[in-house]
Amino acid sequence: MAAPRLTTRMMVIDDDADYSRLIVECFTGLGFEVVYVDSGEEALAQIQGFAPEIILLDLRMPGMDGFEVCRNIRRNPEYAGIIIIILTSVGDTEDKIKGIDIGANDYVVKPCGLAEIFEVVARVNRFLQTRTGYLRKVEEEKFFTLRGAANTVCHEINNPLTAIVGSARVLSMQLAGRPDAGELQPQADTILEACHRIQNITHQLAKAIRVVTTEPVPGVKMIDLQASTKEE
Fold first, then answer.
1. Residue pLDDT, tens place only, 179-196
2. Number of structural domains found in the chain
3. What mean pLDDT comes out for the span 48-67?
4. Over residues 158-182, mean pLDDT
5. Residue span of the structural domain in which 173 resides
6. What is this structure's pTM?
7. CATH number of the domain that 176 lies in?
8. Among candidate residues 172, 159, 162, 13, the one with its CA nearest the CA of residue 85
9. How many angstroms separate the CA atoms of 108 and 114, rounded?
10. DSSP assignment string, 43-83
């Protein structure tokens, strides 16, 4: 079985410390970064800071149970990409159905022996491989969208922009020798500078080879043009 990426972060949420220790040791040995918490409340307190990519979630815990934890996670759009695998007892068909209904991706039966531990590993890897393919497809779609926008911008903007640049240069030459040139020339220069900045943006868009976004203001994402033109 292929080892997952070293950057894969997993959170184990279960009040059974002995069982969780086996899971943590298993996935840590496979290269995962694993955090264990023993309550739903603690899980919700740590999830934002740790940013897990996959969660193993026991349904039957004192205090906030796994159902409520799952509901809280799925209410937050920021956590939509987290894979949640619920841990249920043998014969708890109702729990399995309910868990899937509220947003879990899959379930594994516990208590676990060695065979069940391998089943957990297999299911985690399956979801990670599926997600990798999905993310690759999303990135490709984002790139083709950017490429289409770049072609449109270059076609629709560059032609009138060239006319503006040419007119601004003619205006700049005509100002030479005029008594009011000192007052008007800076404005003509400002027009040329702004046009050159727009041309530079269109050139960067045309050279983009991938999509890199930045968030200058919380909740507002923008394309980082400079980074999008560089190889990873």
1. 777 788 888 888 888 888
2. 2
3. 89
4. 81
5. 141-228
6. 0.54
7. 1.10.287
8. 13
9. 13
10. HHHHHHHH--SEEEEES--SSS-HHHHHHHHHH-GGGTT-E
